[in-house]
Amino acid sequence: LAKTTQPVSMDSYEGQEVNITCSHNNIATNDYITWYQQFPSQGPRFIIQGYKTKVTNEVASLFIPADRKSSTLSLPRVSLSDTAVYYCLVGVLTGTKAAGNKLTFGGGTRVLVKP
Amino acid sequence: DTAVSQTPKYLVTQMGNDKSIKCEQNLGHDTMYWYKQDSKKFLKIMFSYNNKELIINETVPNRFSPKSPDKAHLNLHINSLELGDSAVYFCASSDRAYNQPQHFGDGTRLSIL
Q: What is the DSSP letter of B15?
């Protein structure tokens, strides 16, 4: 079972790049890495997902080294509205009841963007 | 239109009671989930259904029982509520299993007196 660890919190300033690293030393071969953003009193919201190397979309990039034991979410040029808790999720889900179905969230990283 | 909706939003009740939380998704997704978020904001999966079949059943007390009457609904029934059940419960759905992004509801805050 992948134990997933993130920093508890980090501060940044508007316009800066924020990088959040998630450690998952026991990641399994079929596990994917997914990042979510959560605002107070709301459910988590999908940001990005990857399996290996680099993935980029309109809001973030995800860097995954070759050994896949960690992953880094990169948020370019953050604004005040990016203040939230960010979670990494590691695991695999098949369509059937299989022993390998596992989804493990990290503890979340509280990002505070200052003006 | 709300994609994943949970009712009620708040639930305050006493120890020993039985309660249910309902979840509905209008996204046409095949897979639904229940998560528990504790006071320290840790998120832990409890159950997952794919096409009404239970595919994840984590180690939770058997006082918790999910029910999926159809693909669009996944309800959570909790018997004999205990103080430690106080948490926010999130329902989510995804388009098929196979590691698809999940869409979450806004949660049900359960408080046990």
A: T
Phi/psi of residue A44, nearest 5 degrees: -60, 150
Distance from CA of B47 to the nearest CA of A (A): 10
Rg (C-alpha) for chain B, rounded Å, is: 13
Pull the structure tokens for residue A14.
Answer: 């508007």
Spatial separation of the C-alpha atoms in residues A55 and A80, rounded to whole Å:
24
| Cβ-defined contact of A46 to B31 (cutoff 8 Å) | no
pLDDT digits (tens, 9 = 90+) for B71-83: 999 999 999 999 9
CA distance B98 to chain A (A): 5
CB A109 within 8 A of CB A9: yes
Does B105 sit within 8 Å of A34, measured CB to CB? no
CA-nearest of B61, B67, B39, B64 to A107 is: B39
